[in-house]
Design goal:
The complex is a heterodimer of chains A (133) and B (378).
Chain A: E1 2-6, E2 16-19, E3 24-37, E4 46-52, E5 57-64, E6 71-78, E7 83-87, E8 90-96, E9 101-102, E10 107-113, E11 120-132
Parallel strand pairs in A: 6-8
Antiparallel strand pairs in A: 1-11, 2-10, 3-6, 3-9, 3-11, 4-5, 4-10, 7-8
Chain B: E1 4-8, E2 18-20, E3 25-37, E4 45-46, E5 56-59, E6 66-71, E7 78-82, E8 91-94, E9 107-113, E10 116-122, E11 129-136, E12 141-146, E13 149-154, E14 164-170, E15 174-179, E16 182-188, E17 200-204, E18 217-225, H1 231-239, H2 244-253, E19 258-260, E20 273-279, E21 284-289, E22 299-305, E23 310-312, E24 317-323, E25 327-330, E26 334-340, E27 347-359, E28 364-366, E29 374-376
Parallel strand pairs in B: 22-24
Antiparallel strand pairs in B: 1-27, 2-26, 3-22, 3-25, 3-27, 4-5, 5-8, 6-7, 7-18, 8-17, 9-14, 9-18, 10-11, 10-17, 11-12, 12-13, 14-15, 15-16, 18-19, 20-21, 20-26, 23-24, 28-29
Helix pairs in contact in B: 1-2
Classes of the chains: A mainly beta (133), B mainly beta (378).
Chain lengths: 133, 378
């Protein structure tokens, strides 16, 4: 079965988090996040998904940044080659991610690396195929 | 079997990590994480050109405190510039204490500078100043001092914006101070100089005597003698300033105890390249390279996943997604890294394998929703 899950709003330039609910197993088909990119951040800001088993990181999926600041960005993680496109302050990024299968309790945390103070995730949505376990 | 996260013990510095699938297991690898911290570049050596191999080090240098390789005072040479720094000093030149052979006796110090510089000599105790000389060529002030005692001299400032040769001689009783080969001050300050063999010269471009910081001071061609070489030799050095070769030869002709061109260059270790190597316990069955070489002083995080490779560089903390095929490995198979040009100070850490597994005894199958059944022949 397919479904989409929206992450809770973030605070400041903090992370978003998805937690695979109890008795479910998720196969991650894609994750799309939009970001407000503030001015004055460290050059070469990046975006990172960290997959954990609630105790240890088991996989990372980085994504690059581009474009001018301030601006907006849409980051998609999916099982496809990387691509980055910037038109001025508007950025679109595609970052590789395999079809990870995550049991209940596993977490996906999205962070902005070397963020500017005004950076903030606007939305984060994950598209999954799920089964009950 | 359920997904398993296994942490691999960090190897010693300068060593690779390797993981062996234990006996009677078959493991299906979903992901591998590891972090490589590369060693810093080799120490910056302050090279001694006197022939005595009294190399020193640049010490006490904060970020941006000095810039190497700026145009030198002598044509065809390079030098060191000091950033605007408050007191205490911009950088220390630590020198092996064999540069001076006499204690309490005569000495000569010569160097090139523009702007302002405060040079202090310290002994074995780096908190007890032995003696110092502050000179501000812009203000036309010079002071030789130790502790709170010193002689202050005013002089007509030389031409601004160009380098000048500064020298001071001490014959055991009297000091003489020179700019561009010409004596501008003298005094009897034996009581100021109960000095011992110094081990450090420190330089800053600010001064307690004159106050404030000064950006862009350039320092070059520091030579020291444990004797008074006399006024004629100082004048001869200045006269030979037309070329680097000529000036250097003139200084070396007087056999300095130490002579630093200050044209040192920060070296670097070779960049490292990393690959994941999979073996059947005997032969390599796959080598999966990462995307970018790694320089010194870098934290490089690798995530090996069955997807496309992708390198996201962040200064000092890059994350690379590295493609691997789906790996199903029986017992005895190994996974590990091969790091070309690995430095003894490099360190692998945070090594994590994520997999599920089955047992080989009696055969079995791995079946999970969304995956095809995988029959394992035992």
């Amino acid at each position: 079965m397919l479904k989409t899950v929206l992450a809770a709003p973030t605070v400041g330039n903090g992370p978003f988090t998805f937690v695979v609910p109890g008795q479910e197993t998720w196969t991650i088909l894609s994750l799309v996040a939009t970001v407000q990119r503030g001015a004055g951040g460290t050059p070469n800001r990046s975006y990172l998904l960290t997959f954990t088993d609630s105790a240890n990181a088991v996989a990372l999926a980085p994504a690059a940044d581009a474009g001018t600041e301030p601006g907006t960005g849409t980051i998609t993680w999916a099982n496809a080659p990387a691509a980055v496109l910037a038109a001025g302050s508007i950025v679109t990024v595609l970052a590789p991610l395999p079809l990870l299968v995550l049991p209940s309790g596993y977490q996906i945390v999205g962070t902005i690396e070397r963020a500017a103070v005004a950076d903030q995730w606007a939305t984060a949505l994950v598209w999954v195929e799920f089964t009950y376990s | 079997m359920p997904l398993t996260t296994e942490l691999v013990t960090n190897p010693p510095p300068g060593s690779e990590w390797v993981y062996a699938v234990p006996g009677q297991y078959i493991e299906r690898i979903f992901g591998i994480l590891a972090t490589l911290n590369t060693a810093p570049p080799p120490p910056l050596i302050l090279a001694d050109a006197s022939g005595h191999a009294r190399n020193g080090t640049y010490a006490g240098v904060g970020p941006g405190a000095i810039t190497l390789g700026v145009p030198g005072m002598v044509t065809g040479d390079t030098a060191v510039s000091l950033a605007a720094q408050g007191y205490p000093p911009g950088f220390y030149v630590d020198v092996p204490n064999t540069a001076f052979t006499t204690s309490g006796g005569a000495f000569t110090v010569e160097y090139w500078v523009n702007g302002r510089v405060r040079a202090e000599f310290f002994g074995v105790s780096t908190t007890v100043q032995l003696m110092g000389c502050a000179i501000d060529l812009n203000l036309g002030r010079q002071q030789i001092f130790t502790g709170n005692a010193g002689d202050l001299t005013a002089f007509a400032p030389p031409a601004a914006g160009i380098p000048h040769m500064v020298a001071w001689r001490f014959d055991g009783t009297t000091y003489r101070f020179y700019i561009d080969g010409v004596q501008i001050s003298t005094g009897n300050v034996a009581s100021i100089f109960p000095w011992q063999v110094p081990t450090r010269y420190d330089f800053s471009n600010t001064s307690q005597q004159f106050g404030g910081g000064f950006a862009g001071t350039v320092l070059d061609e520091l030579a020291v003698w444990s004797r008074d070489i006399g006024a004629a030799r100082i004048a001869a050095h200045y006269a030979a300033r037309g070329t680097f070769a000529g000036y250097s030869a003139a200084v070396l002709a007087d056999a300095p105890d130490a002579y630093y061109h200050l044209d040192d260059v920060q070296g670097a270790n070779p960049t490292r390249t990393v690959a994941l190597v999979v073996t059947d316990g005997r032969d390599v069955i796959g080598t999966y390279p990462t995307l970018a070489a790694v320089p010194d002083s870098t934290v490089e995080q690798y995530t090996w996943l069955p997807t496309n490779s992708y390198n996201v560089p962040v200064p000092g903390a890059t994350v690379q997604t590295v493609a691997i095929p789906p790996l199903v490995l029986p017992s005895g198979y190994t996974i590990g890294t091969a790091t070309d040009q690995m430095n003894v100070g490099d360190q692998w850490s945070d090594i994590t394998l994520w997999y599920d597994y089955s047992y080989t005894s009696g055969g079995g199958a791995i079946a999970e929703p969304g995956y095809r059944n995988l029959l394992i022949l035992g």
